[in-house]
Prior knowledge:
Layout: E1 6-9, E2 18-23, E3 29-33, H1 46-49, H2 51-56, E4 66-67, E5 76-77, H3 80-98, E6 103-107, H4 113-127, E7 132-134, H5 141-151, E8 168-172, H6 176-179, H7 181-193, E9 198-202, H8 208-212, E10 215-217, H9 224-237, H10 243-249, E11 250-251, H11 253-260, H12 265-272, H13 276-288, E12 292-296, H14 298-301, H15 306-319, E13 329-332, H16 339-344, E14 351-352, E15 356-357, H17 361-371, H18 384-393, E16 398-402, H19 406-409, H20 413-422, E17 425-430, E18 443-446, E19 455-458, E20 463-467, H21 480-490, H22 501-512, H23 524-530, E21 533-534, E22 561-562, E23 582-587, E24 613-616, H24 618-623, E25 631-635, E26 640-647, E27 655-659, H25 664-668, E28 693-701
Parallel strand pairs: 6-7, 6-16, 8-9, 8-12, 9-10, 11-22, 12-13, 16-17, 17-18, 23-27, 24-26
Antiparallel strand pairs: 1-2, 2-3, 4-5, 4-18, 14-15, 19-20, 20-21, 23-28, 24-27, 25-26, 25-28
Bound molecules: iron/sulfur cluster (SF4).
GO molecular function, one term: 4 iron, 4 sulfur cluster binding
Domain 4Fe-4S Mo/W bis-MGD-type: 3-59
EC number: 1.9.6.1
Amino acid sequence: MTQNSQKSTCSYCGVGCGILVKKDANDKVMVEGDPDHPVNRGMLCSKGRNLHYVVNDTSDRLLHPQMRWSRSHPLEQVSWDTALDRAAQVFKSVIKQHGPDSVGFYVSGQCLTEEYYIANKLVKGFLGTNNIDTNSRLCMSSAVVGYKKTFGEDSVPIAYADIELADCFLITGANPAWCHPILFRRIEQHKEKKPDVKIIVIDPRRTDSAMYADLHLQLIPGTDIILYNAIGRRLLERGLIDKEFINNHTEGFASYKEQVTKTSLKEAARLCGVPLNDIKKAADLIGLSKAFISMWAMGLNQSVVGTNKNFALLNLSLITGQVGKPGSGPFSLTGQPNAMGGREVGGMANLLAVHKDLMNPEHRREVAQFWGVDEISPKPGYTATEMFEALETGKLKAIWIICTNPAVSLPDLLRVEKALKNARFVVVQDISNKADTLEYADLVLPAAGWLEKEGTMTNSERRISYLPKLVEAPGEARPDVEILCDFAKRMGFKAFNYYNTEEIYQEYCAMTKGTHIDISFLNYDRLKTEGTFQWPVNEYRHPGTARLFEDKKFYTPSQKAIFNIPYTITNRSIMPSESFPLILTTGRVRDQWHTMTKTGKVSRLKTHYPKPVLEINPSDAFVLNIREGYIVEVSSENGSVRVKATLTDNVRKGVVFLPMHWGKKLGQNLNRANNLTQNMVDPQSKEPDFKFTAVRVENYKKK
Ligand code: SF4
């Protein structure tokens, strides 16, 4: 399909696979993997291979703006002028009455960088509030804090090219075999060529990734920090540490040593529920390897102690000196295609663009000056869950939701629904009429989707790609940047008169100049003609930067990496009790994506895991008189769901698993995993605790 095909990037996970797009004689889109792309070399996973269905089938698309005059009225089709005039009128009136902090924007890691940038400029620079947060808060904000505190900035030090140079992988709190499949395929291919390469998986579930590993430590949920510290202790005891690196390039080692030596290996094994010998074996594999990569995702991040888990894991890279070297480094995996781009433009309530810090007055002044505004508010905005709490209490009056479906994806959904009902004004800007959040919208704005607009994205390894517009959006759908700029102008802000998307990109690039994420020498022309680049790209003809910190100069004031000491080694979730004796962990299945508004319309993606089922260990099922296929009622302090059970020792005794994708519109009515999860967050990252909820499981009725 190379003739007349155009290059783009997959719109699903953060791996960022290259795609070739072509149209057939009927103008239908066809896709295949780009054999020349450095990420996937022609490979695509099941989701990527079926992307054309999502583009070609417009039967679910939102085609026209819709508005209701009051909650008792149905939504009715209106013109763009009517819709955006109303939005501007309501936002002006709410801000005038209640101040700028009474409005908020909730955006998405699926937004393109230009969209993310404009939304942040609008909210932080011109509306005068920092109430803009993203659904990426739900998947990687703990990793952001981990990187910032360890390396001085939110900087992923590694490249996918390091995979083929590594000889030991520690995959923990992630199932890349299902959720980052092409990345995992590269690990498999590497191991096929070099069987001595070792893979360790730490996960309470025996996932497909764990089944492929040389060693699986099936720990009790929430005991991660104890386990990483135990591995650290064993490395110390065996002298498998890099003293030169520790002495010359780190700070805080003495405190680290003090913490990890407090718990004996035997005690750690008992607390984590793993064999002592497996801890020793894991440490020896890591310590004796020449190039070690740790890889993690939401299993670590989505926890009330998520940042502490990140610290404990990052410390293993520091103690072994495995940073800034070929084939080594810590590597957090992003779940969404542009979660990284969002981080770059400051797309969170506590961040500013180009890795500047909202709490730093000088940084605020610099950003305000760049945007030509008097000041940026010093008050941190509401984070994802805080925003919905504020809607519930009435502190937040109006919310604008872009490209995300919080009525399925946030924790404690019954509370989220209450919050949305309580809001004075809800704008939903999306592509699909299958998003449950639409039920609460006062204003619906149809957005252009993948291939229907241009812009850039950054994948998990800091690789920026350009996505061209290749097809027309259906109906009256418009690119998100156009919608936001149009709204901004109606609010009276003159700084949103862009000629095109490229001009927005150039403005952002100018802002990066002189920073650690400098891409001032990377324009659309280079991206279109030369392909993808890893930031920074800070000189004329610069080829991009595969690996950071090769000079061992970190971005902290001392230029040393910091051992951060977890303030607790134990979990702080609500523990199981007599009433709720089991631990529920939620997660993803191989062929579905987020709340299924895209993958849910591809029938062949439904065959692998057609319905949500509760995975339960046979010994727990036996006690509860539950057999394969029985309907069970799962209850937590927040709510309950009824689903079929499947018996499997892939989950350990005392643990149950339920996937999170299904919402009301996709046929599960109220039986959604997030009815059960708690509205509890990590105090530093504000990331919710999706991986540990105390539940009760009862035999509801026999199948
Ligand atoms: Fe798309 Fe991720 Fe699959 Fe690659 S691995 S094809 S980016 S979903």
